[in-house]
Amino acid sequence: VVELVTGGSKIRVGNATKHQYLDALAQYRLATSLKDEVEQFLKGLNELIPDNLLSIFDENELELLLCGTGEYSIADFRAHHVVNGGSSEFRRILDWFWTAVSNFTQEEMARLLQFTTGCSQLPPGGFAELSPRFQLTAAPTFGSLPTAHTCFNQLCLPDYESYEQFEKALLLAISEGTEGFGMI
């Protein structure tokens, strides 16, 4: 039995104390109980990559470095996605999307996947095996940044006045908007 809170075995958990216990439980499961394993992992990692070099990367960049970018096929992507929204304005946005994505580097494709699905890699079998399918959805806004719902593999694309504005917003979103629900 692990006492999460000092004297916790004598304290009744109720509405007033539940958040204290949940915080303590999360701390225990995500940090305290794994402390030895994490320290050994970091020791081994630091033997390969010195800490001063490792610290310049955020978690998304580190994932790209460790896992690679994979190979992404635009033909596979086009064949295995879902479109939500059929207005003529959204058709124009979809044309711009495919133009932009066709010009993406492998790293930019990895960032698009990270932004939309939460993972920079495709499953074995490519886009056909994504579950749920990659969704392109019309956003009800104009000129704002694209948004994503990673639980649904859904990319929401607003309308823009020009392709240049669209491309700039998409690149900004996938480059800067990949933090998601990162743990502190």
From TrEMBL:
<keyword id="KW-0808">Transferase</keyword>
<dbReference type="InterPro" id="IPR035983">
    <property type="entry name" value="Hect_E3_ubiquitin_ligase"/>
</dbReference>
<feature type="active site" description="Glycyl thioester intermediate">
    <location>
        <position position="151"/>
    </location>
</feature>
<dbReference type="Pfam" id="PF00632">
    <property type="entry name" value="HECT"/>
</dbReference>
<dbReference type="InterPro" id="IPR050409">
    <property type="entry name" value="E3_ubiq-protein_ligase"/>
</dbReference>
<keyword id="KW-0833">Ubl conjugation pathway</keyword>
<dbReference type="GO" id="GO:0043066">
    <property type="term" value="P:negative regulation of apoptotic process"/>
</dbReference>
<dbReference type="GO" id="GO:0009966">
    <property type="term" value="P:regulation of signal transduction"/>
</dbReference>
<dbReference type="GO" id="GO:0000209">
    <property type="term" value="P:protein polyubiquitination"/>
</dbReference>
<protein>
    <recommendedName>
        <fullName>HECT-type E3 ubiquitin transferase</fullName>
        <ecNumber>2.3.2.26</ecNumber>
    </recommendedName>
</protein>
<dbReference type="GO" id="GO:0005829">
    <property type="term" value="C:cytosol"/>
</dbReference>
<dbReference type="GO" id="GO:0061630">
    <property type="term" value="F:ubiquitin protein ligase activity"/>
</dbReference>
<comment type="pathway">
    <text>Protein modification; protein ubiquitination.</text>
</comment>
<dbReference type="GO" id="GO:0006511">
    <property type="term" value="P:ubiquitin-dependent protein catabolic process"/>
</dbReference>
<feature type="domain" description="HECT">
    <location>
        <begin position="1"/>
        <end position="184"/>
    </location>
</feature>
<dbReference type="InterPro" id="IPR000569">
    <property type="entry name" value="HECT_dom"/>
</dbReference>
